[in-house]
Amino acid sequence: MPDRPVVTRIAPSPTGSMHIGTARTALFNWLYARHTGGKFLLRVEDTDRERSTQAAVEVIFDGMKWLGLEADEPPVFQAARADRHRAAVEDLLAKGEAYRDYMTAEELEAERETARAEGRVVRSPWRDIARNDAPDRPFVVRLKSPLTGDTVVADKVKGDIRFQNKDLDDLILLRTDGSPTYNLAVVVDDHDMGVTHVIRGDDHLNNAARQTLIYKALGWEVPVWAHLPLIHGPDGAKLSKRHGAQAVSEFDSMGYLPEAMRNYLARLGWGHGDDEIFTDAQAISWFDIVDVVSAPARLDWAKLNHINNHYIRQADISRLADLVTAIHESRDLKVPAALRQVLERTIPLVRDGAKTLLDLADSTVFVLTPRPLAMPEKAAGLLTEETRGRLNRLRDRLAAATTWDVPSLEGEIRAFAESEGVGIGKFGQALRVCLAGVASAPDLAGALTALGQEESLGRLHDALSPAA
Ligand code: GLU
């Protein structure tokens, strides 16, 4: 393939959502461009004017931005290039590589019938009729494809796929209204954008044969093909709604971090030995399109959660606090500026157990809930006379504490249990309920540390005062 620098592209059609398979295709194109020091481009295939609303186009931009896969040049819009597509067809007509087909709908139907009966593809008589015989009626423009020989798609993932030319009909390039067809537009756009490697879903494999014929007719260099297997659900069926999520935005709202998605998606169909977790830089240095496997990849929620947990544990606290705040606020739980610091202090204490940002948000609710807390039903059973007395003594001890962090509070609790001659189990659960109410909370020292001394003592006071 070309000595030119590598140019890859993602070419989504705006449908109103961005499928996770499109995200993975974008990622592989991005990785390959970065790996080779080439360029990664974005083309919006917006020829379906009804579906291609501004909002649907924004979904693509937002998805790419969220995934951190920004293109190296401004996006190309396919619909705006229809004149250029038509000009390419004029070129083909002039060279005798395409022809105007004036078959009427009835004639086409009759030819379809005959072709079916004879076990061949549709052929138009206009392929061989000189122009000056042309009638004055609507026509389509078809490619004058070779009738014999083979077209080989030398695919980097699938290997050589051979198509017999006799099985490929003369594909339509322009419809009767003069509008360009999909295969024509893709070829002209990819050529004009300088695309060297077409990396996309394997649902486009058949199109690759047809597009190869168009490239050849135009006298253009055929790009390198790499068709990626689809992503399946955990049960092996094509990924769909019932598998839990399929749109990029759904993974975002389920609390997955974009860097976790990049890492996880990279492993769907590609891998570097057994490495499960790797940085973008590692993926870029290791990625090669020839290492993509041709069998469909299955979405594995447990693996995704594991990877997401890893990135949550690594992420910058202030970024996590922003993300968690947005989740709380979307659930009508305000995070007042005064509690920002408390939230930031809490996150490192609870994040080890969080598979998603939603988990992380859930486990920080307890510090944000204003006093007095709602008590769970079991509180009454836990807060017996004896336990109240004990927690009051613990409260006095905590009020006197001069350092307030996890190790010292663990020490305080242990020493207190010893002085009372009981195990921590005797009062631990009651203490937790006093501190967190119905919300979940980390271990005792973690909860106390997160809340801070004054708030912890206040909550204990609320729960232990006679009116409670
Ligand atoms: N617009 C096509 C799609 O969304 C992609 C075409 C291509 O990558 O060549 O499936």
**N-C termini distance:** 78 Å
- Subunit organisation of the chains: single chain
Could you say how many structural domains there are in total? 4
Any idea of the CATH class of the largest domain? Alpha Beta
Would you count the extended β strands for me? Answer: 12
Q: Report the helical percentage.
A: 40-55%
Please identify the structural class as seen in this structure.
Answer: mainly alpha
| Shape, per Cα inertia axes | elongated
Ligand roster: glutamic acid
Strand percent estimate:
5-15%
Cα-atom radius of gyration: 32 Å
Main sheet: strand order: 1-2-3
CATH homologous superfamily designation of the largest domain: HUPs
| Major sheet attributes | 3 strands, parallel
User: How does CATH name the architecture of the largest domain?
Assistant: 3-Layer(aba) Sandwich
Mean pLDDT: 95
Total helix count? 20
Question: What topology does this entry show?
Answer:
Layout: E1 7-10, H1 20-36, E2 39-44, H2 54-67, E3 76-77, H3 82-94, E4 98-101, H4 105-118, E5 140-143, E6 150-155, E7 159-164, E8 172-174, H5 182-192, E9 197-201, H6 205-218, E10 224-228, E11 231-232, H7 248-253, H8 258-266, H9 280-286, E12 297-298, H10 301-314, H11 317-330, H12 340-350, H13 357-362, H14 365-368, H15 378-382, H16 385-399, H17 406-420, H18 428-436, H19 444-451, H20 453-464
Parallel strand pairs: 1-2, 2-3, 9-10, 11-12
Antiparallel strand pairs: 4-5, 5-8, 6-7
Helix pairs in contact: 1-9, 3-5, 5-6, 8-10, 11-12, 12-19, 16-17, 16-20, 17-19, 18-19, 18-20, 19-20
The protein binds glutamic acid.
Glutamic acid binds next to loops.
